Give the backbone structure.
Amino acid sequence: MQNTKHSVIEDIFALVSAGLFVAFGVFLFQSQDLMVGGAAGLALLGSYAFDMEFGLIFFLINLPFYALAWTQISKRFTFNTFISVTTVSVLTEQIPAFVDISHMNPIFTAIFGGILIGVGMLIMFRHSSSLGGVGILAFFLQSRFNIRAGTFQLTVDSVILLTALSFIAGHLVLISILAAFFLNMVISLNHRPERYFPVVAKSDNEQDQHAITSDLQPQNS
């Protein structure tokens, strides 16, 4: 039987790397006033509305969801998600000290940023982690009240994008939808564990993988 469980060192290295992908994607979105969904989208809204740092808002928004992840998913998943969220929160605020963008085409930014975030999330999924937030709540609502996780997340993301119209131009919201499309394509085409691992009795790691829900991408239910 193939061993699919990663060591702690492997998890930490992968999750910090994934956090850098996501943080740079968010940095690109911020440079063009683009939006994403989930807790990251709420944090971006907060940064536009209250002139607060994205990283701080993103970290604070996710705090209440760790209790749900701890009780409804697994302790390992909760710990790994905490690493991912903290990494994204910190790196998003530090990247501007190392990168200066004078000009980027918004459409290219949406495509490239969406792919970057999607790859980062894919790495997180492979290491029993996520970006927390709305994805965890969606999993809880589906498991406890049979509310479809994909429908819930799509509703939340739609509300976020509609609310964003109060802070950014309408054409940027439309471009943000393009970003979401490419992000979702990365996840849907590559997050297919059954293609890589033999069918065996579920280990703890496989159960974590089944439980993981995306914060930025609606889960198919």
